[in-house]
Every structure is written in structure tokens, then in C-alpha cells.
Write a structure and sequence with these properties.
It is a single chain. The protein has 176 residues and is an alpha+beta fold. The protein has one domain. The protein has one helix and eleven strands, in the order H-E-E-E-E-E-E-E-E-E-E-E. The strands form two sheets. It has a six-stranded mixed sheet, with no helix packed on it. A hairpin with a 2-residue loop joins strand 8 and strand 9. The longest helix is centred in the first third of the chain and has 21 residues. The relative contact order is 0.24.
Length: 176
């Protein structure tokens, strides 16, 4: 009896995990999803690709204090920060990401990361989920050496010590 109960519980947990991962591709799930328990590290995957941009404003505006996770006012972009970096995932976009590196999963072009080595597109699967608080347009948040600013033109995240990072919006995304 105990053994079959453990099997049922394990199977139920596996099904819940599969359902949660299956719904990661849309920003429309933000309002219905449960918040993440704790913001995870921005990425553990190796560097993948960059798409250099020249005209990115890197000034952090009105800082609202540290936020480990937030979403854009449109709900299309969800970001996480920690003392090792920042990561943003975008739901819908019209830009052309850099060529997909060999071995990348589905969802290529939806995840950008900045860490101590700079900004890059990541092969990590996007994780648009949770009821993260909104970072209003014109506001910034900083955690350690990493900061992000929300503007009507998108989200920009950077390493404040190197001024390297990324910007992402529905229309464009790239690194600097």
C-alpha cells in the first residue's frame, strides 16, 4: 500500500511538472500562473550568440530598489535578477534573433542574459511564468552589480561595472 501511494504521488508530481513546462511559451499565462518560490540563477548554459547593438541607453533611471523578479507593464517580458546576473524572457517578438546555435532547444531567441562576461542570447528554455510584480515604465531595479530599466521601448539590463548587457522588446533585441 505504501509503495503504490508513493508511485501515485511521484507520477502526479511528474504530470504537474510536464504541464507547467508545457505552458512556458506564452506571456498570456502570467496572470494565471503561481509565482515562483525564489528567483533562480539567470543561466547555467554556455554562451551562445550575440547580436551587437550600438544605440542603447544604459542609464538606470528612477531605482525602485532590488527586485529579484519582475515583468514589463505589457506582460510580454519577464526578468529575474540575482547577484550573478540578469535574465529576461520574451513571449512574442518580431525581431530576427542571431542564427540558432547547434543544439539549442525550441524557443531560440526568447532568452537574453547578462553576467560578469557580458550580454548574450541563451539556449536556456524561456520560463515565462509567475505573477512577478510589474516594473513600471521609467523605473529601474538593481541587485548587486546588475540593473534593469523598463521603458516603453523595452527592457534593458546591464552589468553596472562594465556597462555591458542587452536590450529586448517586441521590435528588437541585442547585446551591447
Amino acid at each position: 500500500m505504501h509503495r503504490s501511494r508513493s508511485f501515485v504521488l511521484a507520477r502526479g508530481a511528474a504530470i504537474l511538472l510536464a504541464v507547467a513546462l508545457g505552458g512556458c511559451g506564452s506571456a498570456s499565462n502570467l496572470a494565471d500562473a503561481e509565482p515562483a518560490a525564489e528567483a533562480s540563477a539567470p543561466t547555467t548554459s554556455p554562451r551562445t550568440a550575440q547580436l551587437p547593438l550600438d544605440d542603447v541607453a544604459t542609464d538606470l533611471t528612477d531605482d525602485v530598489g532590488p527586485m529579484r523578479a519582475f515583468r514589463s507593464p505589457s506582460g510580454n517580458i519577464v526578468c529575474r535578477l540575482n547577484t550573478d546576473g540578469a535574465r529576461c524572457d520574451i513571449g512574442d517578438f518580431d525581431f530576427s534573433p542571431p542564427p540558432k546555435p547547434e543544439g539549442c532547444e525550441d524557443g531560440w531567441g526568447r532568452t537574453l542574459v547578462v553576467d560578469d562576461e557580458g550580454g548574450f542570447f541563451s539556449c536556456d528554455a524561456p520560463t515565462l511564468a509567475g505573477n512577478s510584480p510589474e516594473l513600471a515604465y521609467g523605473k529601474s531595479t538593481t541587485l548587486g552589480s546588475f540593473g534593469c530599466t523598463s521603458q516603453r521601448t523595452g527592457i534593458t539590463c546591464l552589468n553596472t561595472e562594465t556597462d555591458e548587457g542587452f536590450t529586448v522588446s517586441r521590435e528588437r533585441a541585442g547585446t551591447f
